[in-house]
Amino acid sequence: MQDRISQLDLLRGVALLGLPLMNMINFSMPMAAYLNPKAYLPNGPLNDFLFSFFHLFADQKFMGLFAMLFGAGIILLAEKREQQNKSAAKIHYSRNFWLLLIGLCHGIFIWDGDILMIYAFIAMFVYLFRKLRGSWLVALGVITLALSAYSSYLAGVYVESLSGEARHATAVIFAPDTAQIQQDIEIYREGFWALVESRLLGGNLASGPESAIVISYFSLSIILKAAAMMLLGMGLFKLDILRGKASSSAYKKLAIAGVAIGVILTGTGLIWNYSHDWSMDDYFTYGAIFNLVGSTFTSIGYIGLICLWFKLGRHLWIKGKIQSVGRMAFTNYLAQSFICTYIFYGFGLGLYGELTRIEVLGVCVLLGLFQLAYSDLWLKAFRMGPLEWFWRTLTYFRFAPLIKERVVPATEQRL
Description:
Blueprint: H1 2-18, H2 20-28, H3 32-35, H4 45-57, H5 61-83, H6 88-110, H7 116-126, H8 134-161, H9 164-174, H10 178-188, H11 192-200, H12 209-238, H13 248-275, H14 280-311, H15 316-327, H16 329-344, H17 357-381, H18 386-396, H19 410-414
């Protein structure tokens, strides 16, 4: 059991440290820069290389891994409660009710890229399928992924039909003009309460009924993709892939096949989009689908790579540090938001729109090193992260023990 938990902690730690590689773009630049390399920063070989590299190996990959681990956690908690002859549903729904509220507060007051609300909402539904066999859960995940791809395609079809003001308003998502970019920068350089008010009013997102339909299809695609990854995680856990019980040979095959297929599909999407000069119509209709599907394979391939690494009796020091990050996944996810909004938003250092991709990558590296250091130090004295403790206390409606008990050496006991 301990090995299995340690493996999941390593996977969570890698996922948490990988999330800022793409999230940092949303923290520091207009949203279009995340989707389109030509939308915001000056064109050039370095900008294109960095965008392409992280699109291939990071975009949706670590978020997909994180979602699969969330799904695995649903099964793990349910099994633990059932072994204790306790209600699994009561704790599951309490846990996700509080996560939904925390995510709502996070999305309004800290960062509008919150994923916790989506995870909590989806978890309330996928829990109903927890009794299915692993193969059925994987199949259901594949079907949900197909629906996500179809929703993305419908968004593109609707984008193609737009014209005039509706098309101009929708372009803020993918290809904003200079005025739209400046408006976005001004919003994020405002004070705290002005930014909160802007979020509640919709900020600089596209407006109007036509644009709302595009955003609805696009949002539905994101929700379905997260649900697909969660179902896949539940299935892979039941199939023992995420339990650490598969052979090294199986993990090696999973790593090679997953990453290879994922990179080929995502790379094909890059070629498609560059060959169509990053057209908004072509991107939403077909271009986004390549990575939506390809990133799923890459995330699964990463599971193979990380589990294979876990089985090796090497690099124990760095593995331990990463596992500490994974044990504090909830704290570290929200800490990334607190730190990055302070760096980039107007109520902090106000660097929004000031950095290039390579400079943002430097911030990611420093953030990762910081989280590796403080996670390890914190867990030397405490049982869990502070926000894990807060979430657990709300879930069970009683204070959970936080401070580790000091182990008294035998020599002191004799004295």
